[in-house]
Design brief:
Helix content is 44%, strand content 17%. By secondary structure, the chain is α/β, with parallel strands linked by helices. It has a seven-stranded parallel sheet, with helices on both faces. Strand 2, helix 2 and strand 3 form a beta-alpha-beta unit. Helix 1 packs across helix 7. It is globular, with a radius of gyration of 17 Å.
């Protein structure tokens, strides 16, 4: 079976790094790069990759019609991906609860939860017929223990996504499909561009390992959960926290 990877949020730093890892596996694979912007970055990366064929799928995940079009395109051209990686999210920022904005939460829920649900609603039944599928979604260490202050909207969204993931595991665990998540603490990517650099530095200093999580460490965890070596791992929310949060 040829592997078809659908990466939602492909232009993220983690998405780009994971595509390089797919290429290093030296298997002929197809990558469906679902992105909102940054097609030029994807085209440049594609020139580096010798073992994959990349298809670019522009999609505004906050719009149901865009999501439906992307799903229909994939279904008609490829049938179903064998591997899903869901990374899409708006940029991270701290907001006091006194400035809580439900419209922002709804946007986050559309991008992270509703779009993922729509993709899974179409493709999990196809995977189930094939008795094979790997799904990994990006959660966060806020789902482990007590979340930090000023992250009510972010935490709400990640718990909703985790709840969806757990429900899908319960329904599809006997169908040959593995559905898991990774939950890192702070990772120094463009996702943090709205955060004061002093907070990023302080987070690193206060961690037990005196640094933040590296992109390659997150990608390594994703790569393992996507592999056939992780066949008996299902419903795992893997903490990448250096032991600071258990």
């Amino acid at each position: 079976m040829q592997k078809i990877y659908c990466i939602i949020g492909a232009t993220s730093d983690i998405g780009m790094a994971y595509m390089r890892k797919i290429n290093e596996q030296n298997e002929k694979s197809t990558i469906l790069a679902v992105h909102f912007g940054g097609k030029e970055e994807l085209e440049k990366l594609n020139q580096e990759l010798q073992n994959v064929t990349m298809d670019y799928i522009q999609c505004d995940l906050s719009k149901a019609e865009d999501v439906a079009k992307a799903i229909e395109f994939i279904k008609e051209k490829y049938g179903s991906p064998t591997h899903f990686l869901h990374l899409a999210a708006r940029k991270f920022e701290y907001v006091k609860f006194s400035k809580f904005n439900w419209e922002d939460v709804l946007c986050d829920l559309e991008i992270q939860v509703h779009s993922f649900a729509e993709f899974m609603k179409v493709f999990l039944p196809i995977m189930a017929k094939q008795k094979y599928g790997k799904v990994v979604t990006m959660l966060s260490s806020v789902t482990k223990g007590v979340p930090p202050k000023y992250l009510s909207s972010y935490t709400l969204t990640k718990y909703a996504l985790m709840g969806l993931m757990n429900s899908l595991v319960s329904e599809y665990k006997e169908k040959g499909i593995n559905i898991n998540a990774v939950s890192p603490t702070m990772v120094e990517t463009r996702f943090l561009s709205n955060i004061d650099e002093r907070i990023v530095e302080m987070t690193a200093t206060n961690s037990g390992m005196k640094r933040n999580v590296k992109i390659d460490e997150v990608v390594g965890a994703i790569q393992y959960l996507m592999s056939d070596d992780a066949e008996y791992i299902n419903g795992l929310n893997l903490p990448l926290t250096g032991g600071d949060i258990l």
